[in-house]
Amino acid sequence: MLFPRSVWRLGMPRTAVGWTVVAGAALAVAGLGFLLSGWAGTGGTAPSARVPQAARAVPARPSQAAGGGAPASTLVAAVRVTAPRYASPGRREAGWVPSSWWDRPSVLPVIATRPGWVRVRLAQRPNGSTAWLPASNVALGSTPFRIVINVATTHLSLYSDGRLVFSAPTGVGADDDPTPTGEYFVAFKESSPQPNSGYGPFIMVTSAHSTNIADWEGSGDAIIGIHGPLGEDAEIGSTGARISHGCIRLHDHALEQLSDIPAGTPIDIIR
Fold first, then answer.
1. pTM of the predicted model, to two decimals?
2. What is the CATH architecture assignment of 74-143?
3. Closest to 263 (Cα-Cα) out of 194, 187, 169
4. Which residues contact 42 (CB under 8 A, 6 or more apart)?
5. What one-character DSSP code corresponds to residue 59?
6. What does the alpha-carbon distance between residue 133 and residue 137 come to, in Å, rounded to a whole number?
7. Domain residues of the chain, as ranges?
8. pLDDT, tens digit, for every residue of 160-216?
């Protein structure tokens, strides 16, 4: 799992033995893999625009893409204070929703609303966890972006306002350590360990956790992230590959196009 002052290097090639702890990186990224692999002039489609640095002002409700179906934006909730969890509006359940995770603010996608209440996705295990919170405990915003990763076609697609921005080949989990499918989101981003770590310009930490590995090398978790190719550009190529312990790897040029994607942005991993 992640440590505030160190990082388990999870996206390492599957042939590597063990993992290295990088002290002083202040990198809260642990576990096992990371989620994307992409466009570096090797078959991906270049994005038409850069993303904004912050979530947009909150709309009255999430808008829908032209033509219906996919949401053109997603409501997000920044948790103001660590708050009690509710199974439904007004019905308390065990546990709390933290205002931060690995010392980063909790910014969570909103999947339902009721007067005075929001239902959010959570970053913690188990995958798919949700909770209701009083609206007074959060500050609302929105993101126009959505990342879709298809592990069958080993490709990533980025959407903005419901429209495709770019697509890229990815490195995903091998059959014995698959990338978990489901609905997740961007938790936060961190600088890569330096120098020449192979992770690319940054690491995008997600809310997904391995379904095969509970505790990677004593880290306490197995968190999926998005990062560079770790020297396996050729394997990823223009078609993608199954090469990781659950991570998704991008060519560095593709990863750079995600540098301004805000926390709370949905990530759908499909098959």
1. 0.78
2. Roll (2.30)
3. 187
4. 169, 233, 236, 237, 238, 251
5. P
6. 7
7. 6-49+145-270, 74-143
8. 999 999 999 999 999 888 999 999 999 999 988 877 688 999 999 999 998 888 776
Structure tokens at 182: 């489901």
d(CA 186, CA 165): 17
d(Cα 11, Cα 250) in Å, to the nearest integer?
11
Residue 108 near residue 137 (C-beta atoms within 8 A): no
3-state secondary structure 62-85: CCECCCCCCECCEEEEEECCCEEE
Q: What is the pLDDT of residues 206-258, one digit of tens each?
A: 999 988 887 766 777 789 999 999 999 999 999 999 998 898 999 999 999 99
What number of other Cβ atoms are within 10 A of residue 146's Cβ?
25
> Cβ distance 141 to 56 under 8 Å?
yes
Residue length of the chain: 271
Nearest-10 Cα torsion for 128, 187, 169, 212: -50
**Cα-based angle 265, 266, 269 (whole degrees, multiple of 5):** 140
Instruction: Say which CATH topology domain 6-49+145-270 has.
Output: L,D-transpeptidase catalytic domain-like (2.40.440)
Nearest alpha carbon to residue 228 among 208, 248, 209, 242: 248
**With contact defined as beta carbons under 8 Å apart, do 255 and 200 qualify?**
yes
Instruction: Read off the amino acid at residue 127.
Output: N
Task: Name the residue type at position 154.
Answer: T
**DSSP state at residue 132:** E
**Rounded CA gap, 174 and 58, in Å?**
39
